[in-house]
Amino acid sequence: MAADEVLRARVRQLMALTDGSQRAFAARVGIEPSKLSRSLAGKRRFTPWELARIAETGGVAVDWLLGGDGTPVPPDEAPAGHRDQRRDEILVAAWRLIAERGYHSVRVADIAQACGTSPAAVHYYFPTKQDVLNEALRYCVEQAFTRQRAELGLIDDAHQRLVRLVEMQLPWPGRVRDEWSIWLQFWSEAALRTELRPAHNEFYARWREAVVRIISKGQRQRVFRQDVDPEDAALRFTALTDGAAIQVMTGAPGMTLDRMRGLLLGFIDRELVA
Amino acid sequence: MAADEVLRARVRQLMALTDGSQRAFAARVGIEPSKLSRSLAGKRRFTPWELARIAETGGVAVDWLLGGDGTPVPPDEAPAGHRDQRRDEILVAAWRLIAERGYHSVRVADIAQACGTSPAAVHYYFPTKQDVLNEALRYCVEQAFTRQRAELGLIDDAHQRLVRLVEMQLPWPGRVRDEWSIWLQFWSEAALRTELRPAHNEFYARWREAVVRIISKGQRQRVFRQDVDPEDAALRFTALTDGAAIQVMTGAPGMTLDRMRGLLLGFIDRELVA
DNA sequence: CATCTGACTGACTCACCAGTCAGAAGGTCT
DNA sequence: AGACCTTCTGACTGGTGAGTCAGTCAGATG
Question: What's the domain of life for this entry (chains A, B) (predicted)?
Fold first, then answer.
C-alpha cells in the first residue's frame, strides 16, 4: 500500500472512532468538507497544516497518520473536550501576543480580550500568569514540531527533506516569523531562568535530533557523504540556522531571507552532499 | 619603533596631558601604581583590560594607543569629569543587572541600590528608565568592543587573531557570559521593538566588519585561502558564533564551551586556512 | 422539579514601582 | 557674606496590573 493510501485509510479510521458525520469532523478540524472529501478520495493531497490539525483533533501522533505503529487513540489521550478547547484557545492567544509584543509585555487582560473573555476566566484555567506564558511557549513550539513532521514525513529523499526543512524555517512574515520570535524569547528567558531550561532543552534536543535523523537517512540513501558525523554536522547546521535567523529577525545589515536560504543550502551542498 | 614601544610612548604622552602624578593616573585607571610603572619600563605587558581602561579614562581610542593616527585627546571628548563618572557607574550597574535578571526585571531602585544611591538620583541623570536601560545595552557592547580591539590589536598574524577572537568570545562564566546575556536580550528586544534596531544593527555591522577585516588581512598575509569572499565567510562565521553561543547560554544538550571552541576553530581550519 | 457543578463575570484589593518635587548639603564665584 | 549652581535625598503620588471572591447562569444529574 502506497504512503498516501495508508494516510487516507488512517484518516478514515480516525473519523470512524470519533462520533459525528464526515461533515462534523471536517468542521472540528477546520477544513472545508469538500476538501476533506476530495482528499479522502485521493483527488487532493492533505496539506501539512491539515495533517497537523487532524492529528491534534483526533488525539493521535502525526506519525501514526503517516503509517507509524501504535494505537490510534491512546486511552489517556482521548479527543479534546470542551474544557481543553478553551484552554488551547487561551494558549494560542498567549503565544501570539508573546510573539508580537514580547514575553514581559503581555497582560492577562490582553490574553482575555484576545479570547473575548475576562481576566478572571484566564485565572480559572491557569493559577498564575507565569503558568499561562510558560505553557504558551511550550504549546507554540509543540505545534511547530507537529507541522514540521507532517510536512517532512511526506518527503522520502533525505536531501530534498533537508532542503524543504530549510525553506520551512525561513522566517517569512506571518506564522513562521512569530515562531522564531518565540524562540528568541525562549532563549533569553532560558538563559536567565534555569527553571525554563528543562523544557527548552527537551525541545532543542528534538529539533537537533530531527536534523541528525535526516542526515543519517541521507547517508543510508547515499545522497550524503559517508565521512561526516551526523551529530556534529547537525550541531553546526542548527547553530548556523539559529544564528542566521537572529540576523534576519533583527534586520541585521546584509541579511535577508534569500541570503539565509543561500547560507543554509550552501552548507548542505558543501558539507553534506556526496 | 616596535609596537610595544609605541604603546608605552603613547601612554606616557597621555599621562603628560592629564594633570596629576603617575600615581594619580594609575588610581584613576584602576591599576596598581607598581604595575603601571613596570609596564611603562617595558618589564611587564599591559593587559587588554588595562588598555581599554586607559583609553577610556584618557578619552582616546584604543587604536591611538596602539599607534593609530589622530589627536590624542579630541577637543570635544575631554577626559571624563565627575558627572560622567557617576553616569557611567549607573550604566555599569544597569547592564550588569540586565545581564543577571533580564531587561524587564530591572527596577530603578535596584540600579540605585547597586550604586549605593537613591532612585531619584538615577532619574537625575536619565529622564526615564527606558533611557537608562537602552543606554546600558549600548554601553556594555561598546566596552566589549573596546576590550576586543585592545587585545586583538596586539596580534599581527590574522589566523592567530581570529583564533584569539574565538577564545575571547567563549561565554565563560563571568564578564563574557554577562555580555552574551546582554546580546540575547538585545536580540529579542530588537526583533520586537524597531526603535532599537538602528543601535543594534550598527553594533552588529561593526562586529561583522571586524571579522571581515581579519579575514581580508589573512588573505593579504597568505595565511587564508584566496578563493573565499570575506563578506560571505564573515556572515557565516558570525552566524555560527551566535548560534553556538545561544546553545551554550541555554545549556542545550551536548553543547559545551569546549564544543563551541571546536566548532569555530573547525570552521576556520576547514573554510579559511590556506 | 430540586440540586449540583462547571464555566464564567464584575467588582474589588493590594502591592509595586516609575516618576515628581521641595528642599538640603556642599561647593564656587563675586 | 551671600548669590547661585550642582548633586542628591526622602517623602510623596498616581497608575497599573495580578490575583481574589462572591455571585450568576446554563446545563447535567438524580
Answer: Bacteria
Residue of A208, A239, A251 lying closest to B240 (CB–CB): A239
Say whether B243 and A247 touch across the interface (CB within 8 A): no
Q: At what angle do helices B129-152 and B158-169 cross, to 10 degrees?
A: 140
CA distance B106 to B104: 6
CA of A18 to C1' of D27 (A): 23
Does B250 contact A197 at a Cβ distance shorter than 8 Å?
yes
Number of folded domains in chain B?
Answer: 3
Residue of chain B minimizing CA distance to A246? B187
CB A65 within 8 A of CB A55: yes
Q: What are phi and psi of A254, to 5 degrees?
A: 80, 0
Residues B162 and B119 in one domain: no
A253 touches chain B (CB under 8 A): yes
Q: What is the pTM (predicted TM-score) of this model?
A: 0.78
Question: Are residues A33 and A114 part of one domain?
Answer: no
* pLDDT tens readout for residues B12-25: 777 766 545 566 66
| DSSP secondary structure, B60-87, as one string | --HHHHTT--S-SS-GGGPPP-HHHHHH
